Fold each of these.
Amino acid sequence: MKKVIIVALSIVLLQHGFAQIKVDRSKKPAAGPAPAISIKDPVIFTLPNGMTVLVVENHKFPKVSASLNIDAGPIPEGKRAGLVNLMGQMLGEGTTNMSKDKFDEAVDIIGAEVSLYASGGSASALTRYFEKAFNLMADGLKNPAFPQASFDKLKSLTITGLKSNEKSAPAIAARVNAALSYGKQTAMGEFTTEETVKGLILKDVKDAYKNYITPSRSYLTFVGDITPAAAKELTTKAFGRWSGKKLSLPVIPLVKNPAKTEIDFVDVPTAVQGELNVGNLVSNPMNNKDYHALLIANQILGGGAESKLFMNLREKHGFTYGSYSRIGSGRFQSLFTASAAVRSDKVDSATAEIFSEILNMRDGKITQEELDIAKAKYNGSFALGMEDPSRTATYASNILINNLPKDFYKTFLQKINSVSLNDLKRVSGIYFNENHSRIVIAGNGSVILPKLLRLGYPVKKFDRYANPVIDKAADVKGIETAKNTNSISASEIIETYLKAIGGKDEVKKVTSMSSVIGLDMMGRSFEGVEKKMNPGMQMLELKMGTMTVMKMVFNGTSGFQQQGPQKKDLSEKEIKEAQDDKGVIPQLYYITDGAYKTDYLGTGKVDDEDTYRLKVVMPSGRTSIQEYSVKTGLLLKEETTSIQEGADIPMTIEYKNYKKTGALLLPTEITRNAGGQEIPFKYKEIKLNEGVSDADFK
């Protein structure tokens, strides 16, 4: 039942914000007429050093923004992957004229915003302070200091960030998808690793700066309370004498899609969902004759909550919280991808449904209503976007960079509204490819792989860095690989844990536990009591002041949850989940009760601490991946699921700050995170075998 806590508390905190909203979802809004679009062309001029300047006057507010973007195209980094990004961060670490502290102070004094990055920089300030802000941006781009201490700091932070994503199924799936689609050795398929970053030195950063920070192929855009004459004078003073390496746009060979659709699988045993990406490479430059029809086709397939994918995978089948598609565009080859984060036991079914909707698009199974809604979306969003003056500048630079007709955006809605049902069928047949696709999945192989075989596609296995995995000990179905047990078993991990917290004999003596807990969340403070008693009885009550905001009670066979004055019985599924904890210390039952299935998954890390990863299949069928410290034997982290609105959602639980309570060593800080909502419990007082009775669970 502890897994239900985060769901109920989130509802308590959020439900009042939605209580007054009433929407008739049975009727879709009628599509309005396409708005008339009038776009004023910006003033454009070019400096002798190759910098193109665009000026959009708007004197409505006394503010000016400028952004400089260097169009270098995809940059291959190879064994130095991560270098250009690190170089961009180093641009913000002070100049040869001003330390970082002085630079930041100068920006703050005038209330400006100045940013520097690997492809340029930006400055924004009130009109009277804009010249100072602009010159600060120019100083940062032209005269970076590149101090060694800053390099060491940012390099370390980059490595820390990479470590934090080591077990993230979404990050793994995205990385492998790009690497396999474009090729690991290409600029668009390579990725940054701890190894590539560790090999970087400060000289690499300085060399990257010389190669890519240059006025060549740069576009400087002014928007706001400034005249073209003033912008030209400002630009000439700041950048007129700036020179650098001449850039040329790289020519990137086209990559072929797979000869036949294949499944590329990455085993992430700790993942409680399967990250699913289905798609293929496309060539879709913005001057493509199919560009506008493809925008509409993608919108209908997976562009939002009214799309085919969303309505199928979420509304009809309940496989996911959302499923979407994206169609890339631009001068280089890009990806069409349909994706979803899916319940592990439904990844195969979700894959089949995604292909079903792709085939519906290719077969022309699209209604006029779907087409009208998609057009209305673009009519509204395009018109709304034009209220932002910077959009005009963006459109103008897009026209220059992508070699588009000058009236591309002036006729944008005209072309959107001319798209027909036949156009949608035609472009879907060309660009949404079910026969030469990649199905990239990252998730728990023991749950997902056996069911994938029914789809009939060949399955290729890869590690988290897109390297092929060769099965050393395949079973009859060809889906299992040999496991490295490191001479330790699941039962040994549990025995070690019980010994670490005080010994099995002492654990057996514990029949009840009473705890005083505190919680600070979303600006509010809660106090509460948590009680447990064998066999499997649990109670939690949280108060804000004297008011009970949430209470949950389970007597071992039934129970209820209460939010304010509202009270409801636990559902059958919630009861089964609550029964997973058969006692105060559930690990004791992992090795004495046959209802639990345990399996050792290998080693891992939590922060910088080495761990043994233990898979526990609970009596309810729910899976828990638990990480126990190699050094201390203590439980550090758990990844599992919890029930929310009848569906399982992924949850992470961290156990910290173990302290002695009687004869046992117990965690006093337990943080649960589900769906991005973090709940940090602090146990202020814990009592064993006192203060608990049957009456607490009625």
Note: The first strand starts at residue 43 and ends at 46.
Amino acid sequence: MSVKDTIWSPPDAEEPAADRRQAEASGFVGRRHEIAQVRRLLAKTRLLTLTGVGGVGKTRLARRVSEILPRRYREGVRLVELATIDDEDLLAPAVAASLGIHDRTPDLEAQLIEHLGDKQLLLVLDNCEHLLGACARLVEHLLYGTSRLQILATSRQSLGVYGERVLPVPSLPIPRPGDRTRDIARRDAVRLFTERAATIRPGFHVDAANARAVARLARRLDGIPLAIELAAVRLRTTSVEDLVNELDERLDALAEAGPGRLARHQTLRATMEWSFGLCSAGERRLWERLSMFPGGVDVETAEAVCPGQGLAREDVLDLMMGLVDKSILGVAEPHGAGARHRMLETIRAYGREQLPPAHAEALRERYIEHYRQLVEQVRVDRVEPGQIDRMRRLEPELPNVRVALDLCFGRPGAAAAGLEIAAELWANWLVAGGLSEGRYWLKRGLALVPRSSVARAMGLWADGLLAHYQGDAAAADARECLALARQLRDERALAFAVQLSGVAALSEGDVEGGLALLEEARARHWARGDVHAVGVTLYVAGLFAATMRPDRAAEYSEELVTLCERRNATLFRAYALYAVGMARWEQGDLQQTEARMREVAAFWGAANDRWGLPQSLEVLAWTAAARGRYERAARLLGAAHVLWEAVAASPARMRYQARSHQECAERARRELGAQAFTAAFRDGTRLGLSRAIAYALEEP
């Protein structure tokens, strides 16, 4: 299976931005002045950084701006969550994923610049502080290499890039001494407290009886939004007056231990320490352990990973609900058939600090084992039902899988497990367009795993495939993989090594040698009963042989179609049909080519597969030109062009599409004339996704 076998869909360029995975659990309060400042500054600069202490509301302000401003940007707003990324080498892949780019080249930064070009787009980079140097370098290069891109960053300190404008995000306005009840109630810090308090005590409002206490609380918390929200939860069991007295005692004790008045970051930390102390022992243990999950967690995963060392599995659900009630853990967010809970990064960081070393080691072992099993369950390189569901299941777990990989590569004796996880994800990296990230993890593992192991052989195989799809030579990986498999006398590794050798030979133009190796690999996979590896081998052989040996390519692809239909593998079947269509095109059978391409275009449209769609539209453009319908051909080329751009690719880069694409475009331009061809092509670019699919599915 290739990067083209995708059910992952990048954000639609017509949709406004903001990250929808972490919907706000409550309304947005205040910040009118800051929003106005952001809008004014973005009219004057290409880089604006929102700075401030943790918990002050930088992320929430950036998200609010993302919701308000999309109409100003023709290509919309894209938000990149960096809190879940700990390694600077994964920064560019994260940006590429937010833009819907399938990274296909080793130089991903250059690909980003090419894709963004003169696009009018706002890129929001959230939580840059732990990747400050890498963010500064990438931002500088992106701004220098593009003409209309603007970037809004959030960070605890500025990026230090030339031309950067910095907007410090202050705390929410707090009541002033002498404010009357009405004035107190209008201050944003009090409005936030009132809104959150009303969710705890319905009907709560600021009145003459409680106004002074609420004002004192807002002032003691310096108007820091996160601190206010954590404090408001205490109204479940205490009055406002008692709440303020508790807070005074806590903050006064801390102030006495240090010089002078507390800084804002100390105020927030004191509030979290207070909240931590108010949790039960079980809730504290669970808070510490849930801090391991940057991508959030569902109940089933928490029950699988977190128990032990004084925490019973049967107590996890109730303890999670207790943390939700205390605003430590976010309310459940729907995702697929289930729901996930997330922690704000500031709260998660505090929890990680509290995790006792004695508990951490066992927790890490359970964490790695859980995600090792999950990766095996969600592999999409399987000739069986449910490939789309498995890919969607993995998507929200990727930040947590990264933690598992990092743990493996940072612990003695665990590197082989990490390399196995990365290799098993090879097809997921491909279909999600994450080639650079996949190779990053594979390279880390290969540098740590001994040379005489099956894990290394399979890591070389996976890295060789990803290298091939990035345009790198796979020969070096193939040679080492084959030699190692023979040395180990491992039949499974040897079958895959022969398969990779066939891919490398085909990429170097050795058609007969490459196909002979792929047929040998197929026989070896069949001998072992590995029907999934047989499917991958047939797909590669059928697609890559289409332009050189269409008769044999058709045989491979038809065999794969039969296999997929027998096993109800709908995603695999669509790509098998595509390969059949390519072979029929090379054989001159327009009717069969069109039938296959309309079928796969309909499937890919329903699955929202943005990588498969441009390929099917391309081939339908060729058949239209072959039938003399040149205006239709130009329009389909235009519709495909928009989709190619969205994944930063081009048919000119693909051996099995380049020649036919060029011939189609040249013929249509020649027959229509340059002006008419350009007009039809532009019409196609304006169709939009749904209309383009409907147009492509029309009978010839």
Note: Residues 357-377 form the longest helix (21 residues).
